[in-house]
Amino acid sequence: xxLLISLTATLAAGVTGRAMVDGEEKDIFRSSSGRxxxxxVILLSTLVVLAVTGxxxxxAQDRHSAQRARMVADIAAMARETGGITGRxxxxxxxxxxxxxxxxxxxxxxxxxxLAYENRPLPIGEGQTISQPFLVALMTDLLDPKPGDIVLxxxxxxxxxxxxxxxxxxxxxxxxxxxxxxxxxxxxxxQLGYRNVEVRIGDGYDxxxxxxxxDSIVVTAAPAEIPRPLIDQLKPGGRMVIPAGRSDERxxxxxxxxxxxxTSATKRLLPVRFVPLRRDRGAR
Length: 284
Ligand code: SAH
Description:
Elements: H1 2-15, E1 18-21, E2 24-27, H2 36-53, H3 57-86, H4 93-101, E3 122-125, E4 128-130, H5 133-142, E5 150-154, H6 160-168, E6 171-176, H7 179-191, E7 197-201, E8 214-219, H8 228-232, E9 234-244, E10 251-258, E11 264-272
Helix pairs in contact: 1-2, 3-4, 3-5, 4-6
The structure holds S-adenosyl-L-homocysteine (SAH).
C-alpha cells in the first residue's frame, strides 16, 4: 500500500512538469489538452504495473547502479592490495567509469543475476565463465585504452569485457569459439546498443587478419604460449594482455609491448586462472 501511495505521489509531481514515459523524458502538458487523456492512461497503466510488480525499471536501475558503485569500490580496494605486483595500484578514471556503467547483470544467466555485482567470476554455461570484475578492470587498464583505439578480444564469453572496452575505444572486434555463447553475446550487446562491438564465431588463435593491425589485444582464455598471429597483428607500440601457461590450474598474466622496431617485450604480472584457449579441430 505504501508503495502505491509513494508512486501516486510521483505521478502527482509528474503531471505538473515532466515525467518518464517509455524511457523518455516527456513534457506532459506542453501540447493541447486533447493529449492529456492518452498520456494519463499511459502513466496510470505504468503505475498499475509498478504497483503489481513492486519494482519498476527505475527502482531496479537504482539498485543496480548502487551495486555497481560498490563493485567499483571493491575493485579499487583489490587494485590497491595487488598494486605492488601489478604496478597498477590505481586504475584509470575512465576504466572505472566504464565498469560503473556496464550492466554486468545483463551478461550473466538469470540464476546468477543476484551475484552479478560480486567481485568474482561466475559460470555462464557451456563450461565457461565470465571473468572476475577486478581482472576485467585490470586487464582493460593495462591496455591503456584511448578513444580512437581499435581493439581485438579473443574469448568473447558473455560479452562483458567487450562491452567495457566498447565504452572506452572506437571499435572492438571480439572472437568466440563456442557458438551459443557468441550468439548470446551478440544479442545482449545489440540490445544494450554497443554498435562499435563486432562479434565473430571462430578460433581466435589466428586473430582477425581483415581488421588488423590493432592498437591492443586482450585474450581472456589461456594458451600455453602466446599465439604468433596475435603478436603479428599488434601495431608497433601496441599492447597485448594475455594469460599464458602450460597448466590449467595456474597461468601468468602477461603484458606484451610491441616495440616500434617490431620486437616485443613481455612482463609477467601476476598468477591467474583462466579457462584454456581451445583450438579448432584440424587447426594447426
Ligand atoms: N571475456 C569473457 C570471458 C570469457 S572466458 C567475458 O567477459 O565474459 C573465455 C572464453 O574464451 C570462453 O567463452 C571460451 O569459450 C573462449 N575461447 C576459448 N578458446 C578460444 C579460442 N581459441 N578462440 C576464441 N574463443 C575462445
